[in-house]
Amino acid sequence: xxxxxxxxxxxxxxxxxxxxxxxxxxxxxxxxxxxxxxxxxxxxxxxxxxxxxxxxxxxxxxxxxxxxxxxxxxxxxxxxxxxxxxxxxxxxxxxxxxxxxxxxxxxxxxxxxxxxxxxxxxxxxxxxxxxxxxxxxxxxxxxxxxxxxxxxxxxxxxxxxxxxxxxxxxxxxxxxxxxxxxxxxxxxxxxxxxxxxxxxxxxxxxxxxxxxxxxxxxxxxxxxxxxxxxxxxxxxxxxxxxxxxxxxxxxxxxxxxxxxxxxxxxxxxxxxxxxxxxxxxxxxxxxxxxxxxxxxxxxxxxxxxxxxxxxxxxxxxxxxxxxxxxxxxxxxxxxxxxxxxxxxxxxxxxxxxxxxxxxxxxxxxxxxxxxxxxxxxxxxxxxxxxxxxxxxxxxxxxxxxxxxxxxxxxxxxxxxxxxxxxxxxxxxxxxxxxxxxxxxxxxxxxxxxxxxxxxxxxxxxxxxxxxxxxx
Length: 471
Prior knowledge:
Blueprint: H1 5-14, H2 19-37, E1 40-43, H3 45-61, E2 74-78, H4 105-112, E3 116-121, H5 157-164, E4 170-175, H6 181-187, E5 190-193, E6 213-218, H7 221-232, H8 236-245, H9 248-259, E7 265-268, H10 279-294, E8 298-301, H11 308-332, H12 340-346, H13 354-374, E9 380-384, H14 406-411, E10 415-423, E11 433-440, H15 445-459
Parallel strand pairs: 2-3, 2-4, 7-8, 7-9
Antiparallel strand pairs: 1-3, 4-6, 5-6, 5-10, 9-11, 10-11
Protein backbone atom coordinates (compact mmCIF):
# COMPACT_ATOMS: atom_id res chain seq x y z
CA UNK A 1 0.00 0.00 0.00
CA UNK A 2 1.82 3.13 -1.17
CA UNK A 3 -0.89 5.77 -1.63
CA UNK A 4 -1.60 8.50 0.91
CA UNK A 5 -5.08 9.72 1.81
CA UNK A 6 -4.60 12.78 -0.40
CA UNK A 7 -3.42 10.65 -3.32
CA UNK A 8 -6.36 8.28 -2.95
CA UNK A 9 -8.86 11.14 -2.76
CA UNK A 10 -7.41 12.80 -5.86
CA UNK A 11 -7.30 9.47 -7.69
CA UNK A 12 -10.93 8.71 -6.88
CA UNK A 13 -11.93 12.02 -8.40
CA UNK A 14 -9.99 11.65 -11.66
CA UNK A 15 -10.80 7.95 -12.01
CA UNK A 16 -7.23 6.70 -11.73
CA UNK A 17 -7.93 4.90 -8.45
CA UNK A 18 -10.89 3.19 -6.83
CA UNK A 19 -11.87 2.38 -3.22
CA UNK A 20 -12.16 -1.30 -4.12
CA UNK A 21 -8.63 -1.44 -5.51
CA UNK A 22 -7.20 0.56 -2.59
CA UNK A 23 -8.88 -1.68 -0.04
CA UNK A 24 -7.71 -4.82 -1.81
CA UNK A 25 -4.15 -3.48 -1.82
CA UNK A 26 -4.34 -3.00 1.94
CA UNK A 27 -5.78 -6.46 2.55
CA UNK A 28 -3.09 -8.01 0.34
CA UNK A 29 -0.40 -6.12 2.23
CA UNK A 30 -1.83 -7.28 5.56
CA UNK A 31 -1.95 -10.89 4.38
CA UNK A 32 1.63 -10.82 3.13
CA UNK A 33 3.29 -8.76 5.86
CA UNK A 34 1.40 -8.93 9.14
CA UNK A 35 2.62 -12.42 9.90
CA UNK A 36 5.95 -10.68 10.43
CA UNK A 37 4.86 -7.31 11.84
CA UNK A 38 1.92 -8.46 14.00
CA UNK A 39 0.20 -5.07 14.04
CA UNK A 40 -3.39 -6.29 13.74
CA UNK A 41 -5.66 -7.64 16.45
CA UNK A 42 -8.50 -8.34 14.01
CA UNK A 43 -8.98 -7.85 10.26
CA UNK A 44 -12.48 -7.35 8.85
CA UNK A 45 -11.71 -8.38 5.28
CA UNK A 46 -15.22 -9.24 4.04
CA UNK A 47 -16.81 -6.19 5.63
CA UNK A 48 -14.06 -3.93 4.30
CA UNK A 49 -14.60 -5.18 0.77
CA UNK A 50 -18.34 -4.60 1.07
CA UNK A 51 -17.78 -1.07 2.39
CA UNK A 52 -15.34 -0.29 -0.40
CA UNK A 53 -17.82 -1.49 -3.01
CA UNK A 54 -20.53 0.70 -1.48
CA UNK A 55 -18.17 3.69 -1.45
CA UNK A 56 -17.29 3.11 -5.09
CA UNK A 57 -20.96 2.91 -6.10
CA UNK A 58 -21.67 6.15 -4.25
CA UNK A 59 -18.80 7.89 -6.03
CA UNK A 60 -20.15 6.72 -9.37
CA UNK A 61 -23.79 7.54 -8.75
CA UNK A 62 -23.13 10.77 -6.92
CA UNK A 63 -21.03 12.44 -9.59
CA UNK A 64 -20.71 16.12 -8.76
CA UNK A 65 -21.80 15.73 -5.16
CA UNK A 66 -19.01 16.46 -2.64
CA UNK A 67 -18.38 13.46 -0.42
CA UNK A 68 -15.18 14.66 1.22
CA UNK A 69 -11.60 13.44 0.83
CA UNK A 70 -11.95 10.66 3.43
CA UNK A 71 -14.58 8.87 1.34
CA UNK A 72 -13.44 5.36 0.43
CA UNK A 73 -10.19 5.64 2.40
CA UNK A 74 -9.15 2.44 4.26
CA UNK A 75 -8.30 3.00 7.93
CA UNK A 76 -7.62 1.11 11.16
CA UNK A 77 -8.89 1.55 14.71
CA UNK A 78 -6.79 1.02 17.80
CA UNK A 79 -8.36 -1.88 19.66
CA UNK A 80 -9.68 0.28 22.47
CA UNK A 81 -12.24 1.97 20.21
CA UNK A 82 -15.67 0.38 20.27
CA UNK A 83 -17.56 -0.73 17.17
CA UNK A 84 -20.98 -2.14 17.92
CA UNK A 85 -21.04 -5.94 17.81
CA UNK A 86 -17.26 -6.21 17.49
CA UNK A 87 -14.83 -7.44 20.13
CA UNK A 88 -12.76 -4.71 21.75
CA UNK A 89 -10.03 -6.29 23.86
CA UNK A 90 -8.19 -3.09 24.88
CA UNK A 91 -5.10 -5.30 24.64
CA UNK A 92 -6.24 -7.46 27.56
CA UNK A 93 -6.52 -11.25 27.53
CA UNK A 94 -9.14 -10.78 30.25
CA UNK A 95 -11.32 -9.03 27.66
CA UNK A 96 -10.70 -11.40 24.77
CA UNK A 97 -14.45 -11.89 24.30
CA UNK A 98 -15.72 -8.42 25.24
CA UNK A 99 -18.26 -7.35 22.62
CA UNK A 100 -18.76 -3.60 22.17
CA UNK A 101 -22.30 -2.45 22.99
CA UNK A 102 -22.18 0.65 20.77
CA UNK A 103 -19.92 2.45 18.30
CA UNK A 104 -17.89 5.33 19.70
CA UNK A 105 -18.50 8.77 18.22
CA UNK A 106 -15.06 9.12 16.66
CA UNK A 107 -15.36 5.73 14.94
CA UNK A 108 -18.90 6.57 13.80
CA UNK A 109 -17.74 9.87 12.30
CA UNK A 110 -15.00 8.15 10.31
CA UNK A 111 -17.50 5.62 8.97
CA UNK A 112 -20.01 8.37 8.15
CA UNK A 113 -17.24 10.23 6.30
CA UNK A 114 -17.02 7.18 4.03
CA UNK A 115 -13.99 5.51 5.58
CA UNK A 116 -13.45 1.79 5.02
CA UNK A 117 -12.66 0.06 8.31
CA UNK A 118 -9.97 -2.58 7.79
CA UNK A 119 -9.92 -3.83 11.38
CA UNK A 120 -8.45 -3.28 14.82
CA UNK A 121 -4.78 -2.79 15.67
CA UNK A 122 -2.88 -3.96 18.74
CA UNK A 123 -2.38 -1.85 21.84
CA UNK A 124 -0.59 -1.93 25.15
CA UNK A 125 -3.07 -3.31 27.70
CA UNK A 126 -5.57 -0.57 28.60
CA UNK A 127 -3.20 1.89 26.86
CA UNK A 128 -0.96 1.92 29.94
CA UNK A 129 2.57 1.98 28.54
CA UNK A 130 4.85 3.88 26.16
CA UNK A 131 7.12 1.20 24.72
CA UNK A 132 4.38 -0.69 22.84
CA UNK A 133 4.84 -4.10 24.45
CA UNK A 134 2.13 -6.59 25.41
CA UNK A 135 2.89 -9.88 27.16
CA UNK A 136 -0.29 -11.76 26.27
CA UNK A 137 -1.61 -10.17 23.06
CA UNK A 138 1.70 -9.64 21.29
CA UNK A 139 4.12 -6.80 20.61
CA UNK A 140 4.16 -5.43 17.05
CA UNK A 141 7.48 -5.51 15.22
CA UNK A 142 8.87 -2.06 14.44
CA UNK A 143 9.16 -2.06 10.61
CA UNK A 144 12.49 -0.20 10.66
CA UNK A 145 14.53 -3.26 11.60
CA UNK A 146 14.20 -6.59 9.81
CA UNK A 147 16.33 -8.50 12.26
CA UNK A 148 15.75 -7.09 15.75
CA UNK A 149 12.41 -6.68 17.54
CA UNK A 150 12.49 -3.01 18.48
CA UNK A 151 10.02 -0.93 20.44
CA UNK A 152 7.21 0.27 18.17
CA UNK A 153 6.07 2.87 20.70
CA UNK A 154 2.88 2.75 22.67
CA UNK A 155 0.31 2.54 23.53
CA UNK A 156 -1.00 2.78 19.93
CA UNK A 157 1.64 0.28 18.85
CA UNK A 158 -0.29 -1.57 16.17
CA UNK A 159 -1.62 1.63 14.61
CA UNK A 160 1.90 3.01 14.28
CA UNK A 161 3.37 -0.20 12.88
CA UNK A 162 0.49 -0.80 10.43
CA UNK A 163 0.73 2.67 8.91
CA UNK A 164 4.54 2.70 8.88
CA UNK A 165 4.65 -0.67 7.10
CA UNK A 166 2.17 0.46 4.43
CA UNK A 167 -0.68 -1.83 5.47
CA UNK A 168 -3.08 1.12 5.94
CA UNK A 169 -2.95 4.77 4.93
CA UNK A 170 -3.97 5.91 8.41
CA UNK A 171 -5.16 4.76 11.80
CA UNK A 172 -6.75 6.02 15.00
CA UNK A 173 -4.68 6.15 18.15
CA UNK A 174 -5.24 7.60 21.59
CA UNK A 175 -2.85 9.79 23.57
CA UNK A 176 -2.80 10.11 27.37
CA UNK A 177 0.93 10.73 27.77
CA UNK A 178 2.21 10.28 24.23
CA UNK A 179 0.40 7.20 22.94
CA UNK A 180 -0.18 8.69 19.46
CA UNK A 181 3.11 10.54 19.22
CA UNK A 182 5.43 7.83 20.58
CA UNK A 183 4.48 5.18 17.97
CA UNK A 184 4.48 7.89 15.31
CA UNK A 185 8.01 8.87 16.30
CA UNK A 186 9.45 5.40 16.77
CA UNK A 187 7.80 4.12 13.57
CA UNK A 188 8.72 7.15 11.43
CA UNK A 189 5.27 8.59 10.64
CA UNK A 190 3.11 11.59 11.60
CA UNK A 191 0.89 11.73 14.68
CA UNK A 192 -1.45 14.44 15.98
CA UNK A 193 -2.19 14.76 19.68
CA UNK A 194 -5.45 16.68 19.79
CA UNK A 195 -6.59 19.18 22.38
CA UNK A 196 -8.12 17.78 25.54
CA UNK A 197 -11.92 17.70 25.19
CA UNK A 198 -11.96 18.56 21.47
CA UNK A 199 -12.84 15.05 20.31
CA UNK A 200 -15.38 12.90 22.20
CA UNK A 201 -14.04 9.92 24.12
CA UNK A 202 -17.28 7.94 24.44
CA UNK A 203 -16.85 4.43 23.12
CA UNK A 204 -13.12 4.56 23.85
CA UNK A 205 -11.90 2.35 26.69
CA UNK A 206 -10.59 4.83 29.30
CA UNK A 207 -7.20 5.07 30.91
CA UNK A 208 -7.42 8.58 32.36
CA UNK A 209 -10.66 10.42 31.66
CA UNK A 210 -8.85 13.67 32.49
CA UNK A 211 -6.06 13.30 29.94
CA UNK A 212 -7.28 10.82 27.26
CA UNK A 213 -7.37 12.23 23.71
CA UNK A 214 -7.91 10.42 20.37
CA UNK A 215 -5.87 11.38 17.33
CA UNK A 216 -4.79 10.33 13.82
CA UNK A 217 -1.64 8.56 12.69
CA UNK A 218 -0.72 8.91 9.01
CA UNK A 219 2.28 9.15 6.71
CA UNK A 220 2.08 12.88 5.97
CA UNK A 221 0.96 16.01 7.77
CA UNK A 222 -1.72 16.66 5.13
CA UNK A 223 -3.11 13.16 5.67
CA UNK A 224 -3.22 13.74 9.42
CA UNK A 225 -5.15 16.96 8.80
CA UNK A 226 -7.63 15.23 6.47
CA UNK A 227 -8.24 12.42 8.95
CA UNK A 228 -8.52 14.94 11.80
CA UNK A 229 -11.35 16.70 9.97
CA UNK A 230 -13.16 13.40 9.55
CA UNK A 231 -12.72 12.67 13.27
CA UNK A 232 -14.10 16.12 14.08
CA UNK A 233 -17.19 15.37 12.00
CA UNK A 234 -16.55 18.40 9.79
CA UNK A 235 -19.16 18.41 6.98
CA UNK A 236 -17.84 16.68 3.86
CA UNK A 237 -18.73 19.58 1.57
CA UNK A 238 -16.76 21.99 3.77
CA UNK A 239 -13.65 19.80 3.85
CA UNK A 240 -13.90 19.14 0.12
CA UNK A 241 -14.15 22.85 -0.65
CA UNK A 242 -11.29 23.86 1.62
CA UNK A 243 -9.07 20.99 0.53
CA UNK A 244 -9.53 21.63 -3.19
CA UNK A 245 -9.62 25.44 -3.05
CA UNK A 246 -6.96 25.89 -0.38
CA UNK A 247 -9.25 27.48 2.18
CA UNK A 248 -9.65 27.10 5.94
CA UNK A 249 -7.18 24.74 7.60
CA UNK A 250 -5.70 23.74 4.24
CA UNK A 251 -5.15 27.35 3.23
CA UNK A 252 -3.16 27.84 6.42
CA UNK A 253 -1.06 24.76 5.67
CA UNK A 254 -0.46 25.97 2.12
CA UNK A 255 0.50 29.44 3.31
CA UNK A 256 3.17 27.90 5.54
CA UNK A 257 4.42 25.82 2.62
CA UNK A 258 4.53 28.85 0.29
CA UNK A 259 5.66 31.57 2.66
CA UNK A 260 7.79 29.79 5.20
CA UNK A 261 7.69 30.53 8.91
CA UNK A 262 8.66 34.20 8.99
CA UNK A 263 7.35 35.90 12.11
CA UNK A 264 6.92 32.65 14.04
CA UNK A 265 8.65 32.43 17.40
CA UNK A 266 9.45 28.87 18.43
CA UNK A 267 10.79 27.68 21.75
CA UNK A 268 13.44 24.98 21.83
CA UNK A 269 15.04 22.98 24.64
CA UNK A 270 17.22 24.76 27.12
CA UNK A 271 20.60 23.23 27.93
CA UNK A 272 19.16 21.70 31.11
CA UNK A 273 16.37 19.92 29.22
CA UNK A 274 18.83 18.43 26.71
CA UNK A 275 20.48 16.28 29.37
CA UNK A 276 19.83 12.57 28.84
CA UNK A 277 18.80 12.83 25.18
CA UNK A 278 20.60 10.36 22.91
CA UNK A 279 23.33 11.89 20.73
CA UNK A 280 21.70 10.73 17.48
CA UNK A 281 18.37 12.19 18.51
CA UNK A 282 19.99 15.49 19.55
CA UNK A 283 21.87 15.72 16.26
CA UNK A 284 18.64 15.23 14.31
CA UNK A 285 16.88 17.74 16.56
CA UNK A 286 19.55 20.41 16.09
CA UNK A 287 19.50 19.87 12.33
CA UNK A 288 15.72 20.30 12.35
CA UNK A 289 16.04 23.55 14.30
CA UNK A 290 18.42 24.83 11.62
CA UNK A 291 15.77 24.01 9.01
CA UNK A 292 13.19 26.01 10.97
CA UNK A 293 15.56 28.98 11.17
CA UNK A 294 16.11 28.67 7.42
CA UNK A 295 12.33 28.88 6.95
CA UNK A 296 12.32 32.21 8.76
CA UNK A 297 11.35 31.18 12.28
CA UNK A 298 12.93 32.72 15.35
CA UNK A 299 14.09 29.78 17.47
CA UNK A 300 15.06 30.57 21.07
CA UNK A 301 15.41 28.43 24.20
CA UNK A 302 12.28 28.17 26.30
CA UNK A 303 12.47 27.34 30.00
CA UNK A 304 9.10 26.06 31.21
CA UNK A 305 8.30 27.24 34.73
CA UNK A 306 7.89 23.58 35.68
CA UNK A 307 10.42 21.19 34.17
CA UNK A 308 9.41 18.18 32.10
CA UNK A 309 10.75 15.99 34.90
CA UNK A 310 8.74 17.81 37.59
CA UNK A 311 5.49 17.62 35.62
CA UNK A 312 5.64 13.84 35.61
CA UNK A 313 5.06 13.60 39.35
CA UNK A 314 1.71 15.40 39.33
CA UNK A 315 0.65 13.64 36.15
CA UNK A 316 1.56 10.28 37.73
CA UNK A 317 -0.93 10.84 40.54
CA UNK A 318 -3.75 11.75 38.12
CA UNK A 319 -3.24 8.90 35.66
CA UNK A 320 -2.47 6.22 38.25
CA UNK A 321 -5.46 7.11 40.44
CA UNK A 322 -7.83 7.16 37.48
CA UNK A 323 -6.50 3.95 35.95
CA UNK A 324 -6.85 2.21 39.32
CA UNK A 325 -10.46 3.40 39.49
CA UNK A 326 -11.16 1.55 36.24
CA UNK A 327 -8.94 -1.53 36.53
CA UNK A 328 -7.86 -1.83 40.14
CA UNK A 329 -10.10 -4.79 40.93
CA UNK A 330 -8.76 -6.74 37.95
CA UNK A 331 -5.15 -5.86 38.76
CA UNK A 332 -5.59 -6.79 42.42
CA UNK A 333 -6.66 -10.32 41.44
CA UNK A 334 -3.46 -12.42 41.17
CA UNK A 335 -5.28 -14.90 38.92
CA UNK A 336 -6.18 -12.33 36.28
CA UNK A 337 -4.46 -12.72 32.91
CA UNK A 338 -3.01 -9.24 32.72
CA UNK A 339 0.33 -7.91 31.55
CA UNK A 340 2.45 -7.92 34.71
CA UNK A 341 4.15 -4.68 33.69
CA UNK A 342 0.78 -2.97 33.38
CA UNK A 343 -0.30 -4.44 36.70
CA UNK A 344 2.76 -2.85 38.29
CA UNK A 345 1.81 0.55 36.83
CA UNK A 346 -1.82 0.45 37.95
CA UNK A 347 -1.54 -1.00 41.45
CA UNK A 348 0.18 2.06 43.00
CA UNK A 349 -3.15 3.81 42.49
CA UNK A 350 -4.44 1.93 45.53
CA UNK A 351 -2.18 4.02 47.73
CA UNK A 352 -3.23 7.41 46.36
CA UNK A 353 -5.63 9.13 48.70
CA UNK A 354 -8.50 11.37 47.67
CA UNK A 355 -6.60 14.29 49.16
CA UNK A 356 -3.51 13.52 47.05
CA UNK A 357 -5.62 13.19 43.91
CA UNK A 358 -7.38 16.51 44.51
CA UNK A 359 -4.05 18.19 45.30
CA UNK A 360 -2.68 16.96 41.96
CA UNK A 361 -5.69 18.33 40.09
CA UNK A 362 -5.27 21.69 41.84
CA UNK A 363 -1.54 21.70 41.12
CA UNK A 364 -2.27 21.06 37.47
CA UNK A 365 -4.41 24.21 37.33
CA UNK A 366 -1.57 26.20 38.85
CA UNK A 367 0.95 24.75 36.40
CA UNK A 368 -1.36 25.43 33.46
CA UNK A 369 -1.68 29.09 34.44
CA UNK A 370 2.06 29.52 35.00
CA UNK A 371 2.89 27.85 31.71
CA UNK A 372 0.40 30.02 29.80
CA UNK A 373 2.03 33.15 31.22
CA UNK A 374 5.55 31.97 30.41
CA UNK A 375 4.49 30.92 26.90
CA UNK A 376 3.27 34.41 25.96
CA UNK A 377 5.03 35.52 22.79
CA UNK A 378 5.72 31.98 21.58
CA UNK A 379 3.83 30.22 18.78
CA UNK A 380 5.08 26.73 19.56
CA UNK A 381 7.57 24.68 21.52
CA UNK A 382 9.63 22.15 19.57
CA UNK A 383 11.24 19.18 21.25
CA UNK A 384 12.46 15.75 20.19
CA UNK A 385 9.43 13.49 20.44
CA UNK A 386 11.42 10.86 22.34
CA UNK A 387 14.79 11.06 24.07
CA UNK A 388 15.95 7.89 22.32
CA UNK A 389 15.72 5.93 19.08
CA UNK A 390 13.70 2.69 18.92
CA UNK A 391 15.33 0.30 21.37
CA UNK A 392 15.52 -3.49 21.14
CA UNK A 393 12.53 -4.66 23.18
CA UNK A 394 14.75 -6.61 25.55
CA UNK A 395 16.67 -3.40 26.37
CA UNK A 396 13.62 -1.25 27.12
CA UNK A 397 13.29 -0.36 30.79
CA UNK A 398 9.64 -1.11 31.53
CA UNK A 399 9.90 0.77 34.85
CA UNK A 400 10.68 3.91 32.86
CA UNK A 401 9.09 5.54 29.81
CA UNK A 402 10.05 7.15 26.49
CA UNK A 403 7.42 9.85 27.18
CA UNK A 404 9.69 12.46 28.81
CA UNK A 405 8.67 15.17 26.34
CA UNK A 406 5.27 13.98 25.16
CA UNK A 407 3.48 13.71 28.51
CA UNK A 408 3.97 17.45 29.06
CA UNK A 409 1.63 18.03 26.11
CA UNK A 410 -1.16 16.16 27.88
CA UNK A 411 -0.48 17.63 31.29
CA UNK A 412 -0.47 21.19 29.88
CA UNK A 413 -3.56 20.61 27.68
CA UNK A 414 -1.62 21.38 24.50
CA UNK A 415 -2.01 20.01 20.99
CA UNK A 416 1.03 18.58 19.24
CA UNK A 417 2.10 17.26 15.85
CA UNK A 418 4.93 14.74 15.65
CA UNK A 419 6.76 14.60 12.32
CA UNK A 420 9.81 12.51 11.31
CA UNK A 421 13.11 14.30 10.85
CA UNK A 422 14.68 11.44 8.90
CA UNK A 423 16.71 8.38 9.86
CA UNK A 424 19.82 8.09 11.98
CA UNK A 425 23.19 7.47 10.28
CA UNK A 426 23.95 3.95 9.10
CA UNK A 427 25.94 1.68 11.35
CA UNK A 428 25.23 -0.31 14.52
CA UNK A 429 21.79 0.77 15.65
CA UNK A 430 21.54 3.18 12.71
CA UNK A 431 18.94 3.61 10.01
CA UNK A 432 16.23 4.26 12.60
CA UNK A 433 13.67 7.09 12.55
CA UNK A 434 14.13 10.37 14.41
CA UNK A 435 11.42 12.97 14.98
CA UNK A 436 10.34 16.26 16.53
CA UNK A 437 7.02 17.52 17.87
CA UNK A 438 5.41 20.96 17.50
CA UNK A 439 3.50 21.67 20.71
CA UNK A 440 1.02 24.56 20.51
CA UNK A 441 -1.71 25.97 22.74
CA UNK A 442 -4.87 23.95 23.09
CA UNK A 443 -7.12 24.54 20.11
CA UNK A 444 -4.25 25.53 17.80
CA UNK A 445 -4.17 22.27 15.83
CA UNK A 446 -4.10 24.18 12.54
CA UNK A 447 -1.00 26.11 13.61
CA UNK A 448 0.73 22.95 14.86
CA UNK A 449 -0.06 21.14 11.62
CA UNK A 450 1.06 24.08 9.47
CA UNK A 451 4.41 24.38 11.25
CA UNK A 452 4.91 20.63 10.85
CA UNK A 453 3.90 20.79 7.18
CA UNK A 454 6.39 23.54 6.43
CA UNK A 455 9.15 21.57 8.12
CA UNK A 456 8.09 18.33 6.38
CA UNK A 457 8.29 19.98 2.95
CA UNK A 458 11.73 21.42 3.67
CA UNK A 459 12.93 18.07 5.03
CA UNK A 460 12.09 16.27 1.80
CA UNK A 461 10.74 12.74 1.24
CA UNK A 462 10.88 10.26 4.10
CA UNK A 463 12.20 6.82 3.11
CA UNK A 464 10.10 3.74 3.69
CA UNK A 465 11.20 1.20 6.30
CA UNK A 466 12.77 -2.17 5.41
CA UNK A 467 9.51 -3.96 6.28
CA UNK A 468 7.30 -2.20 3.76
CA UNK A 469 4.27 -3.57 1.97
CA UNK A 470 5.44 -2.25 -1.39
CA UNK A 471 8.94 -3.63 -0.99
